[in-house]
Amino acid sequence: MATFTSSLPDDLLDRLTKEAKKLSLPKNKLLENALRLYLDHLKRVEYIQSFKRAANDEDTLALAEEGMAEYFKQLEDNEAR
Q1: How far is it, in rounded angstroms, from Cα 36 to Cα 39?
Q2: What gap in Å lies between CA 46 and CA 30, rounded to an integer?
Q3: Tell me, what's the pLDDT at 29?
Q4: Is pTM beyond 0.85 here?
Q5: What confidence tens digit (pLDDT) does each residue in 17-59 have?
Q6: Above 80 in pLDDT, residue 61?
Q7: For the chain, what is the radius of gyration of the CA atoms?
Q8: How many CB atoms lie within 10 A of CB 60?
Q9: Cα 9 to chain centroid, rounded
């Protein structure tokens, strides 16, 4: 595990200290958990944005529609058997 040193505004450090005490966690563990959650949140936002971009891309929509048509054809073929 690597060591990381940083500065925080006094008010944020006070809040961190209070919450860590309430949760009976070391401050570094609380920061680690918070950072993991925040980075996961950023990844979800990026994922959502990629879908929004794809929804506005005509080529992507055409490809998806072709795929859905093929999927429905396969379903119909399986029902006919």
Answers
A1: 5
A2: 24
A3: 96
A4: no
A5: 999 999 999 999 999 999 999 999 999 999 999 888 877 888 8
A6: no
A7: 24
A8: 13
A9: 27
Amino acid sitting at position 55:
A
Is pLDDT above 80 for 9? yes
Token pair 């309430």 in the structure block, residue? 22
Q: What is the 3-state secondary structure (H, E, C) of 16-65?
A: HHHHHHHHCCCHHHHHHHHHHHHHHHHHHHHHHHHHHHHHCCHHHHHHHH
Q: Which of the 8 DSSP states describes residue 8?
A: -
Q: Count the alpha carbons within 13 Å of 77 in the hemisphere toward its beta carbon.
A: 6
- The predicted pLDDT at position 18 comes to 98
CA distance 53 to 23: 40
The position carrying tokens 């048509």 is 69
Q: Give the C-alpha separation, 32 to 15, whole Å.
A: 15
